[in-house]
Amino acid sequence: MFRIPFLARGPSEFFRNLVKTNIRTREKEGIIRIDMIHLLMQARKGELTKDTQQDEDQGHMSPGKAGKLDLTDEDIVAQAMVFFLAGFDTASTLLCYTTHLLAVNEDAQVQLQSEIDDMLRETGENISYEAIQAMKYLDMVISESLRVFPPVDNVDRVCVKPYSIPAKGNQPGTNFQVDDIALIHILGLHRDPEFFPEPDRFDPERFSEENKSSIKPFTYMPFGLGQRSCIGNRFALMEAKVALVYLLSRFSLRVVDKTTVKIEFSANSLTPTPKGGFWLGIQLRDRKE
User: Which of 34, 152, 201, 218 has fewest C-beta within 10 Å?
Assistant: First the structure.
């Protein structure tokens, strides 16, 4: 509508040329790398197949062999850009809010550091993918941080068939027609006391094995849900987890005079960003204690 580009022309052209040159080189020289661009190129040729049973177990739409997709080079560039931005921007935002919450909630920080120390002793300081994935409290902390401060506070979806939402209480019903756009307020769902008691309180125990089954489906969606959920969510989660393990194994996070304990969002950002930024103290740990 306003013809305002999402990215400046220089970085946008650089990324576009980089991806297109990469595609041409792979096609010309028969180079195969098991990465996202390769998967998109396979999808364009109709050669993308399901590799494991895991997709079926998780309920993903993954037929045995997909038909050809009408993907242009520009489409592949766009998907690569979304993956890049979703992976890095989401991870940095997640890390900022998680470190803030851990500094303010020292008990949770101490418990997480204890789990990190145990993992490092058991693995001989060898931080691996498998070791990170086995850390239950780390996952609980990340999950609760994403509930309190989702990196993206809303997502939209285009209606593909007429649908009516019935009236409830004082709320009137809503009728959607084809091509109507529904805006889903993630932050509103995550902070609704009907779904999460004491919603403003940081409580990783909400996501313990005993409690997470009580979370009502479709009320927790930090990366969206379904086929069009955030393409970089697993990448972002692993980045954030690894960074937290390295950081908290060496340092403790402290509240300082400039720390704003109760965060207020800035009105000058498209994503939930605190007024005045993040300010924390970092104290070197003595893991011998």
Answer: 34
